[in-house]
Structures are given as C-alpha cells and as structure tokens.
Amino acid sequence: MARDSGEPGDPAPPWIAPMLAKPDGGVLRSGPQWTYEYKLDGYRAAMRVGPTGTTVLTSRNGIDFTPEFPDLVGVLARGLDGRAAVLDGEVVVYGADGRIDFGELQQRRGRYRKHAGSPRRDEPFEDVAEVRYLAFDLLALDGRSLLGLPYDQRRALLEQVPMPDPYRASVVPAFTFDALAADRRTPRDLLDSVTAAGYEGLIAKLRDSPYLPGERPESWLKHPLVRTGEVLVCGWRPGQNRFAGMLGGLLLGAHDPVTGDLVYLGDVGTGFTDRDRHELRALLVPLERSTHPFAVDPPRDDVRGGRWVEPHLVGEVRYRQFTRGGADGRNGRLRHTSWRGLREDRAAAEVVAPRTAPEPVAPARQAKRVTVRAGQRQLVLSNLDKPLYPDGFTKAQVIHYYSTVAPVLLLHLRDRPVTFIRYPNGVEGEHFYEKNVPRGAPGWLRTARLPSGGSRDTVEYALLDELPALVWAANLAALELHVPQWTIGPGGAGRVPDRLVLDLDPGPGTTVVECARVAERLRDVLVADGLSPVAKTSGSKGMQVCAGVLGGSPGDTSAYAKALAERFAAETPDLVTARMAKALRPGKVFIDWSQNNPAKTTVAPYSLRGRDRPTASTPVTWDEVRACRRAERFVFTAEDVLDRVRDLGDLFAVLLEERAELPAV
C-alpha cells in the first residue's frame, strides 16, 4: 500500500488497485458496445488528489511514485476546486519527435534512482525530461466511489474535470464505435492511424463495464501492434538439415539515425519460402565480402557462422520489438523478426534504424477458452494464442482475418458445400481434408447432405453463409476453404455450374510469372467468347482464371475448358500442357481444366493457404497480371488482402454480376 503524503486532516483518498486489460489474442473487437483508447507506453499510475490539492501518485503495485514525479504534484488542484478525486492513467514522456518515448522515461528513472542514492537526495529531483499524466478513468470524486458506474458514465465525469495545465495533465482521447461509424471510419481505420502515430496499439473497453479493481476481465482488451521495418541485408547463414544448400537466415543492419553509421540490428530466420531461400542465396553469393560492413564489431556469438555481403539489398521484416542497446538508445536489436520480402523500391541509403525502443512487456497468458459474440450468435473459441504459421501468426489472427474479410468472402461461399483443410497443430504439423461436418458442430450451422461422388454414400457438408459459421470454421484451424463451381438449390437440388475455372499450375522451372502470360491470352479468348473473366492467385504458386456462366451442364463447362487447354497446348507446346502427367510439366504451365468436374473443388477467393506464411488466394486486376514480372510480387498475405479489399473492393464480384452462356465447342 502506498503511503499518503497529505497534511494531517487532509489525506489523499485511499489507493485503488488498478483494473488491468486482457490480451485480445490479435482480434480487435468491433461493435457499438465498444470504445477505443490509445494503448500508452509509460508507467501506470493512480493520481489521488485531496481536497486542498494534496497529490499522491501510486504505481500499479502500490508503490509511492510521488517523489519521482514532483512536477505532477498539484497539477489538478485548481481544476478540482476543493473536490477530492482518484484518477487512473499513465505517466509518459514525449520525445523530440512528439511521440511517447518509453526509453526516455526509463532513462529518467535511472537518473532518479541515482539521485535517490546520492548524498543530496533530500534536494528536489529535477530532470529535463518533462513528464505528463494522461488520465483515462475516474474512480472516485468528492468522496463518492464511481467504481460501479458504467464506463460511459465514468468517462463523462472525467471529461468534465478541468485540466488547468494540459502540458502536464490531460485526458486520453476515446473513440466510440458509433462515433467512428459516423465519420465513415472503422476500428481498423483507427488502428491504422494509431500505427502511423507511433502508439503501442489500442485498448477496447465495453461501454457498460464497471471498474473492477485488481481484476483482468474480458471487458478491457488490449490490442498491441506488430511493427514492420526496412533493413539492409548485411550477411547470411547457410541452411542446415532440411535447408541444406539453401539460405538459413539473414544478418541485418541499418544506418544509425544520428551518425549515419551502418549498425547491426540482429537476424531473421523465419518467414521464408523455399523459393525465397534459393533466390536470396543466389543473389547474395556474388555480393560476398571477407569482413563485416558495420562501423562497430557485432557480438561474435550473434553472428557466428555468418557470411558477409555488401549491404546493397533492402528487405522488409515484421518485428515485435526494437530493444535499446546502451543508455543513448543506440545499438538496439530487432526482436521476434519474420521476413516479408525484398524492397526493390527502396535505396540502401534510405534504410534507417529505429531510434527508440520500448521495454519488453510480458503479456498475460491468454485464456484457453473465451466466449465471443459473432453476429447474433455466441461462440466459444479456444487456444487463441496458438501459432499456426512459422512466423507466429496465431489462431486469433486467423479468426481476425476471416472475420474482417467476411463481407466479401461470404458472397463467394454462399450455397456452396465447403471442404476444409484443417491444420490443428499449425502448417508445420499434420493436416487433413474434412468434408463431413465434425462432431460438436453448433446446431444452428447450415449443412447440406449430398451424394459422395458416384457411390451411394452421402456427405454432410457445412455451408458457410454467415459470419458465425466462418468464425466457427476458423476456430477449428480450417485454414483452407475449397468449394465447387456450382451451388445447391432448395432442398439440395441443383449442381448447375455458375463458374468456369482454368487452374494454371506452374511446373518445375516456371513460376506465376509464366502463369500470368498464359492468363493474359486466356482473357482475350474468354472476352471474345462473351465472358467476363477474373484472375486470382492461388495463394500458393499458381493462379486461376475464372468467369461467371449461365445454364449448361457440368459436361459443357468441362468440355469448353478442355478445348481451351488443348488449343493453348497446341499453339504453344513449349509453354503450356493440358495433360497432368508430371513428366510433361517441367518448364511448362499446366492448364488444369478438370477443376470444372462437379466432384472437384478449387480454393475459394480470399481463403488462406497452409504455407510457410499466411498467404491467401487473392483476386487481382488485369493490369496487375500484365505487369507481373517477379513471382514474389504476386504473393499476398492476410494483411495485404485486407488492405486490398479496403482499397480496391471485391474484385471477384464480377462473377456474381456478369454471367454469360458458353459458346458451343
């Protein structure tokens, strides 16, 4: 318990243990019941103010902060005008760039500790790093406890407290879901602006929630950010075991923002595809040099086994932290890195190291099971913090992706029986196909019992036509969603094809670049035949060309697709094959026309894939197809897809809006 520093007869109000935020598992909550605040990067502190302005600052674990932050004492006295109060908030320091700087706050604390241990400790502590108190809750006012009031009411009272000196104390902005919607914005838009402003993330708070001292309930959820940054490739490590003969990892650097010197930032060993590993190794071998390129020797143990290269290649990595090195904030390291790819649009001289670094914060252990609301239904989700991809992309992030992309994805799943590919232990573990609805499926899940091929057996398929069904499937680690080229009618009748698909699969020695050249020619033929084709990546190594069709039978679409494939194979036998035989496929693109068979399925647009990274099958524009010259630029992650949908809309919607009859073969 903190000690009171007030005068006799005028004590500060008693300390209240702070309510804590729970990790949201990567799923930013959305809906009118939520309000959003910035996630701050400082010291959590209660500010207790007595009737005459006596002020006590108390840390989250009950330690008296008041001597350390004397410039905050009495800052609210004039505004409260004789009323006692208890506020919850954060003590922060702003850097020269106008952003909250936790590293500077830490250095200030170091100077305070040195002062407290000196013979002159009785003198007031003064420091050039000015602190500011950012309040986000009001727990008591004028002798009245506010803990039982809903958040909205406490917030309204807090905003009525005058802040006489906004340079030393102010109220953290809050954004209700409704207010964002009125501005034609979403919580995701707010998160983007938070990212640009350099905050740590967002805290989502239920508007009707009381304040629960010392607890970590579901009503306050924190959504931290994972950062991305540009780096210089300064060295590499040869791969071992399965990666023998390939690149194992990269040694990274950047220019010091003050001196311009090249400094070591750490390494990255995840996020590469096998193709990445081969191609990067081929690029780096000609750039090798005998010594490292840094201004200061990197730690020997950190770079053991590395081969140095001229620092010409610019790449991009994801990272969770940039940790400080020395007291000046230099010589920091990127932590929890994952490779995103080369950035040929960036010059090496532009790559600058981060200058500040928040200290690691150990997140609370995510609950094994959590109840959430999706649409009008309640679901129990499990193991949200479980990584499903090597780069750490968790089940929670999978659920977040599918929840966010649902408005466009569901349009292309509606009335189509879904085949799942499930990865319960992540993409590096065992996976399996699942057509039958698994045991334990919710009673509200819409299903369809259909014949299984030519046998008398039947399969009960799931139909994912609403958000809760999509979230339920994602919780099963059903990363991939595959659907046929037909929909079911009332009572399961139908199977009339409404899509034509030509699946372009690059054989050994070819890539999606060669697929794009074939796709361009296919588009011209399909348009001449009166169709409106759309292209999408497979999310793996190839792509598909699709078109909406009217009438006809499965035999008609298969015959038309086969005729096209054989025509292309005859016209350009050095580039295209229409036969599946592996011996015929090296150096060629296989046009798989058989995907139009009613028993076959194709990965759905916007579906994730079970690869090294959380890539997705992504609709692309024909301009993008024509411009495709490098395979890595036709790989889109979940994050990329969400950005594209926001900026470009549903490029696959053409198949729903424009359908035409196939010409006779």
From TrEMBL:
GO terms classed as biological process: DNA recombination; DNA repair
Superkingdom of this protein's organism: Bacteria
Record-level Gene Ontology MF annotations: ATP binding; DNA ligase (ATP) activity
InterPro entries for the chain: DNA_ligase_ATP-dep_C (IPR012309), DNA_ligase_ATP-dep_cent (IPR012310), LigD_pol_dom (IPR014145), MtLigD_Pol-like (IPR033649), NA-bd_OB-fold (IPR012340), NHEJ_ligase_prk (IPR014143), NHEJ_LigD (IPR052171)
Keywords associated with the record: Ligase
Xref: Pfam families: DNA_ligase_A_C, DNA_ligase_A_M, LigD_Prim-Pol
Enzyme Commission number(s) from the entry: 6.5.1.1
Reactions catalysed, as given in the entry: ATP + (deoxyribonucleotide)n-3'-hydroxyl + 5'-phospho-(deoxyribonucleotide)m = (deoxyribonucleotide)n+m + AMP + diphosphate
Enzyme class, broadest EC rank: ligase
ATP-dependent DNA ligase family profile domain sequence ranges: 129-256
PANTHER family: BIFUNCTIONAL NON-HOMOLOGOUS END JOINING PROTEIN LIGD
Family from the record: In the N-terminal section; belongs to the LigD polymerase family.
Protein name: DNA ligase (ATP)
Organism: Umezawaea endophytica
